[in-house]
Structure formats: structure tokens, C-alpha cells
Amino acid sequence: MELRVERDALSDAVVWTARSLPARPPMQVLLGLLLEVGPDESGTDVLEISGFDYEVSSRVRLAAAADTAGRVLVPGRLLADIVRSLPAQPVDLRLDGTRVVLTCGPARFTLPTLPVEDYPKLPGLPPTAGTIGSDVFAAAVAQVALAAGRDDTLPVLTGVRFELEGARLTLAATDRYRLAVRTLPWRPVDDAVSTTALVPARTLSETAKALTAAPEITLALSGAGSSEGMIGFEGAGRRTTSRLLEGEFPKYRSLLPSESSALAEVATAPFVEAVKRVALVAARNAPVRLSFSTDGVVLEAGGADDAQASEQLECGWQGTASDEPFQIAFNPQYLLDGLGAVDSDTTTLSFTGPTRPAVLTGKRDGDSAGAAADYRYLLMPVRLSG
Questions:
Q1: What is the pLDDT along the chain (386 residues), one digit of tens a residue?
Q2: What gap in Å lies between CA 18 and CA 355, rounded to an integer?
Q3: Is residue 384 domain-resident?
Q4: What is the CATH number of the domain that holds 26?
Q5: Is residue 386 part of a domain?
Q6: Could you tell me if 207 and 279 lie in one domain?
Q7: What's the rounded Cα separation, in Å, for the pair 18 and 56?
Q8: How many domains does the chain have?
Q9: Which domain holds residue 143?
Q10: What beta strand segments (E) does 260-382 contain?
Q11: What whole-number distance in Å separates Cα of residue 386 and Cα of residue 381?
């Protein structure tokens, strides 16, 4: 095996593929990246770089000038560290016995290889389900995945639920303290499609960001709801497959209130900055308290024996008939996550009571209609003592 490839293209490909290498693999060969050189379907020489851990597979193709074809397995993280540090010159790769020689300008590295014959076969891409714009998809995933759980003892909550209904795709995630839901259009192969899938949130987030170089992403799906379920994403010469998570996702739609008793409309950017300032005095896991009235919203944090902070902002308020301010409290980081994900100059907060979940959305009319109106972030309040 001998080839030449552009340094930037190689670096991007290796670093992207190596990101999913397991920290504690069941087999040492899974720490490797598989490099395969040869002609593609059109007869053009390409370098294909792959990684696999039996759960997630990644594959990327890039143009290469190959003198001889072949395949070799090299330590993935070591290769990633090396290519990131190379000078901006073409890279030559050559297999010399059981070693790979990498040369880039004045730099020369000799890498050990792993037994390529022991490397498992990568799964193929499942049947194509449809396509979607990459930028829109990446934005939607970012809005929703932030609400997924991080606790691996509850794996069903570490995923993002896909609901495919005709030309509408709904993404949902929850960690029991907040819920994020985004609905967006996509182009299915079958207009009558109706299925669901639970995708690991971390893999989905990394994949969606990595595929924005392509105008569109191909979504592939097979066996949703079974142990053999798999989802695949492809675009810009990159491909990722992931096993689906098993288990029943919470019936989240019943959590979304059908009506509200009070509404607040707040300019998002000033609200974000005020929450950050006031939260500086909040002890660990302590909430930020919000009091809404026709005079605006007052943010407070801190206790009688500790540092305290308060700030008042203008806001539009449609509340109950009571003359008392409407008071509610939230985890400040969870509130900031929702405000950042709304992606609108104005945020609407809908309430049904001080101990009931609030729903954050973008402004529903004017220029903020569309994507903002298709996103809902439900946040559980923190109970106030006394």
C-alpha cells in the first residue's frame, strides 16, 4: 500500500473517525483505524478510513493518489495526534512490512500496525428512509439533544426519539427534569412512512455536526424497535451507523400542556444575561427565582445568610386575576439551556401553575414564526420552601 493525500483532508477525516473509538474496547483491534486504498465505484482512487466498536461505525472517503492498493490497521488515536501536528504539505503513506511509514515534508513517522485480519466487518448502511437538509437537521438535533440524560444506568433516557410520520420528523429527548421537542419537515422515500427509533444522543449530536459540509443528509433506518435496529447517516463522503437503543421512551406528549393560565414574553438576550448574573450567587443546585407581574419580571437568587442578587427586566405579561406576582423557580443552567435553544429574539414562557412545568417557545408571530414555533422546551420548576 502506497499513496499520497492532502494533509488537511487527511487530518479532518482521521480526527472525525477517531472521535468514536472506544476507551475500553473488548478487543485491542477496535482501537485501530482501518485504512483501505483502492478505486471507488467510478474507478477513482480513494482512501477509505473506518472505525467500529460494534455499536457505532464511522467511514469517510477522500481523494488519494495511490501507487498500490491495500489495507492496514493502525492505532487510531496516535494517528489522529500525528496528523493534527503535521505541516501544511502533502502526506505520503507507505506500508513497509508490519509498519506504516508516514512522511510529510521534513516530518517522518513510523507506526506499528494491528492485525487487520482480526478486525470485524463494518455494517452496511440500512435501507434509505429519506433525506433532510444538513444545516436544519444539525440545528434541530442541537436543540433537542441537550435535554437527553447522561446517566447510563437509564439508557432509554440517553437517547433522542425519532418519530417519522410522512413528511414530518419529530425529535424528542428528556432527562426527567426537562423535555425538548422539535418538529421539522424532511423528504421520505415513502410518504406513508410511520415509525419510531431511539438514537444515542451523543452519537447523533456528533454526527449531525460533522455532516453539515453536505447540503443534504441521507437518513437510513432498519429494524426500529428490535435488537437489530440500526440507523445510518451519510453525506459529504462520510457515513455513520449506530445501533438503536432498546426500551420504551416516556409518553412525553402527555406532559405538554394543551393550554396555559399565564404567558410571559421576554427579550431572549437580556434575559439570558440577567439569569447568568443573578445565578452567580446561587449555591450549587440552588434555583433562580422569577416573579412575573405587569411591572415585568424580577430575578432573584441567594439566601438570607448568603450573597444575594436581584434584577428586574421588562416583559409582556398575561397573568391571572390575582394582584400577587406569579412566582416560580428553575435550575439556572437548565433555564439557560432552553433559552439558548429557542433560537428566537423573543422567548414565550407558558405557565399552568408555580409547581407545574413551564414551556419555552419562540415568539409565535412575525419574523420568529417557523422553526421557533416548532420547538418546545418543557422545564420542571424547583419547589420553593415556605
A1: 999 999 999 999 999 999 889 888 889 999 999 999 998 888 889 999 999 999 999 999 999 998 888 999 999 999 999 999 999 999 999 999 999 999 999 999 999 999 999 999 999 999 999 999 999 999 999 999 999 999 988 999 999 999 999 999 999 999 999 999 999 999 999 999 999 999 999 999 999 999 998 899 999 998 644 446 999 999 988 999 999 999 999 999 999 998 899 999 999 999 999 999 999 998 888 999 999 999 999 999 988 778 899 999 999 999 876 678 999 999 999 999 999 999 899 999 999 999 999 999 997 555 444 445 599 999 999 987 65
A2: 45
A3: no
A4: 3.10.150.10
A5: no
A6: no
A7: 12
A8: 3
A9: 128-253
A10: 262-267, 288-293, 296-302, 308-313, 316-318, 326-330, 346-351, 358-362, 375-379
A11: 15
| Pairing of β 45-52 and β 56-63 | antiparallel
Burial of 22 (0-12, 13-18, 19+ CB in 10 A): middle
SS3 state of residue 308: strand
Give every strand in the sheet of 128-133, ordered side by side: 70-75, 32-39, 45-52, 56-63, 238-243, 230-235, 216-222, 128-133, 187-188
Where helices occur in the chain by DSSP H, the ranges are: 7-18, 76-85, 134-145, 201-210, 268-279, 332-342
Q: For the chain, what's the residue count?
A: 386
* Domain end marker among 214, 230, 253: 253
pLDDT (0 to 100) of residue 83: 96
pTM: 0.90
Q: Are residues 135 and 245 in the same domain?
A: yes
Residue 211, SS3? coil
Within a domain: 385: no
The answer to whether position 286 is within a domain reads yes
- Judge if 180 and 95 occupy the same domain: no
- pLDDT for residue 226: 45
CA atoms within 13 A on the CB side of 242: 22
Tell whether 176 and 221 lie within a shared domain: yes
- Do 186 and 270 fall into the same domain? no
C-alpha cell read off for 168 = 414530518
Decide if 181 contacts 144 (C-beta within 8 A): yes
Q: Of 253, 269, 302, at which residue does a domain stop? A: 253
In this structure, are 81 and 198 located in the same domain? no
Cα(194)–Cα(167) distance, integer angstroms? 10
Residues 249 and 132 in one domain: yes
Q: Are 91 and 82 in contact (CB under 8 A)?
A: no
Indicate whether 229 and 268 sit together in one domain.
Answer: no
